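User: quick one - fold this with fe (ii) ion bound?
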Amino acid sequence: MYRNAKNVGYYMIGDGALAQLQDILAPRREAMPDSPAVFFLDHCFENSSLREQLPIQEWDMVVFVDTTEEPTTDSVDGYTADVKAFLRGRTPCALLAFGGGSTLDTCKCVGNLLTNPGVAADYQGWELVKHPAPYKVAVPTLSGTGSETSRTGIICNEAKNLKLGMNSDYTMFDQVLLDPRLTATVPRNQYFYTGIDTFMHCFESLDGAYRNTVVDALSEKAIDLCKRVFLDDDMMSDHNRELLMIASFMGGMAAGFVGVVHPLSAGLSMVLHMHHGIANCYALSVLEDIYPGPYKIFREMMERQKIDLPAGICKNLTDAQYDALYEASIVHEKPLINKLGPKYREILTRENVIDRFKRM
Ligand SMILES: [Fe+2]
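Assistant: Sure. Structure tokens for the protein plus fe (ii) ion:
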């Protein structure tokens, strides 16, 4: 069976593009004059000038998304309840997200829950969302997760020790606006850890068994862009920030076919509440035998950008925590089979996986 693949509806790329957001929103406002827009902003923008640059009307809702921790089923349910209480049955003319993957994914998941009954946990998996979400706009202020173009909204389910997204065409944004000016003030380490996520998605995809030519082409180009950015002297120059935004955009379209890095990374996020980007870096740091080529390039990039990865993060954990790390990693059957085949548990035994965590 061939998959009928969906992409984001529209995208705009360019320095200062944010000024055109009002024009993008105008037809929505006109078509739905009694419907407010809901703006999701990373909480880091609570006291920033970004808010003044946005076309927020007094009847709109602004939600600050706490990204201290990655989105959880509970946090998504909480934001959904707030938005529903504000909307009182009205359909929003648009949901807009400004931030990194956590904020974008929160917006995507809340969007699905506005038009589908139940709670976030009901939709972790593939093709479980039955009704289209309201119109959504993504404005990334951090590059790398590819959330702006991916068909998933990743959430951690604490009760199930499971990090899994709402994989659905309805999860995708209808409009993406990429303005590299928005990433100028990101802290260097965060810029690297998050940006490198797209490199990870793409080599995991190219190194896997589930392939298709379009995804390969996007992945190859995104990897090429990541190398140009992270092996350059200044990864945060104006030009490189634009390149990384485009790499992230492509990486998101290629996502969904990951390998061993993302499962181990999910274990770290679930058990140690580590953010996705840095968790990926720790995961790849102990996968030199499985991904020797990408591992070498990754080390070169870290060295060139003077990024450090403090060692010993999994030292002195309890046996129960090591077990939880193993369980939260090994559960990701699809990506592990993609790289290691159906007998992946023979390679990634409990001892093997726990030993890798101990080396981080
Ligand atoms: Fe990722």
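One thing worth noting: Residues 145, 197, 201, 262, 276 surround fe (ii) ion (CB under 6 Å).
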